[in-house]
Design brief:
307 residues, alpha/beta, 14 strands, 2 domains, six-stranded parallel beta sheet, Dihydrodipicolinate Reductase, domain 2, eight-stranded mixed beta sheet
Length: 307
């Protein structure tokens, strides 16, 4: 029997252009190309960078005329993967051009800019999505399920690595942990402060901070970007006394014999899940909740910066 559904055309892939051809821009470009049609990559980098992009992504045109790219009607969405201080300007230009926007974290480095972008996206009826990639890690999802009926009392996040020194430690690395804390505790803290800033290579390379929710719940943050070893651990204590530890890409629970037992979590790529979430929001045509969350992250970071 003839089935009309069998002949229905497949929806065309989302047509995306990327702004930024650096390390993370290339990572994002590669991931987007798996499920989207990447139609261009705009970069103001040196000729060697443009040559590198053309060699690694021969099917993607590399352009330097950003205005022309933004005005191209065939482009549905723009992905911004540039230095933090340029996020707000490029996201605004993309929204004003009528494009959906995927911008790497944080959304902006000023609260007024973040609020303005969220308002502009709502007025333009365009998706504004911020790439808080840790929130799409399968371990994060597992932790949220495990703590849904046994809420967190405390969280301690420790991140050790070498670099990156060309971006502010709080806005670049701290934004990941602040976003995670807001997601895990279900809202913005009542208090946010930086307890220690120590210079090593730059003016601040060792950072300690604390977030408090006013009812005893708190999050301790430690970031060391001069460490010879690389590790990321998030230790969570729930209201029942359960201890859960996210160590790099694995999840463990402290058992009664005081040994950590692994909890099996499906190993799906966080970036793949993040891109799928963006595509899903574009299909729905809304991202108000995600934009409001990104604004909250910027608010907390700004409070910590001035504390």
């Amino acid at each position: 029997m003839y089935n009309q559904a069998d002949s229905a055309p497949e929806p065309r892939p989302l047509r995306v252009a990327v702004i930024g051809g650096g390390r993370w821009g290339q990572v994002l470009l590669r991931e987007l190309a798996k499920t989207c049609e990447v139609v261009a990559c705009a970069t103001l980098g040196d000729p060697e960078r443009r040559l590198e992009l053309r060699q690694r992504f021969p099917s993607v045109p590399v352009v330097t005329d950003l205005a022309a790219m933004l005005s191209a009607p065939q482009i549905d969405a723009i992905a911004v993967a540039t230095p933090i201080e340029s996020h707000a300007v490029l996201a605004r230009r993309s929204l004003e051009a009528g494009k959906h926007v995927f911008v790497e974290k944080p959304l902006a480095n000023r609260v007024d800019d973040a609020i303005g972008l969220a308002e502009l996206a709502a007025q333009a009826k365009r998706v504004l999505f911020t790439g808080h990639v840790l929130l799409f890690h399968p371990v994060c999802e597992a932790l949220q399920v495990l703590t849904a009926t046994d809420p967190l009392v405390s969280m301690r996040a420790s991140w050790r690595k070498l670099g990156t020194f060309d971006a502010d430690i709080l806005w670049n690395l701290g934004s990941h942990i602040v976003a995670l804390a807001l997601a895990m505790f279900g809202g913005a803290p009542a208090r946010a402060e930086v307890a220690m800033r120590l210079p090593v290579v730059t003016t601040c390379d060792l950072l300690r901070a604390r977030l408090e929710w006013g009812d005893g719940r708190h999050c301790e943050i430690e970031i060391d970007r001069c460490s010879p070893v690389r590790s990321r651990t998030v230790t969570c204590v729930t209201s029942s006394g359960r201890v859960l530890c996210w160590a790099d890409d694995a999840l463990f629970e402290l058992a009664s014999d005081r040994r950590y037992e692994p909890i099996v979590v499906p190993g799906t790529s966080p970036l793949e899940r993040e891109v799928d979430a963006f595509r899903g929001l574009v299909a729905l045509g809304t991202s108000a909740v995600e934009a409001a969350f990104a604004v909250d992250v910027v608010r907390i970071l700004a409070r910590m910066e001035s504390a």
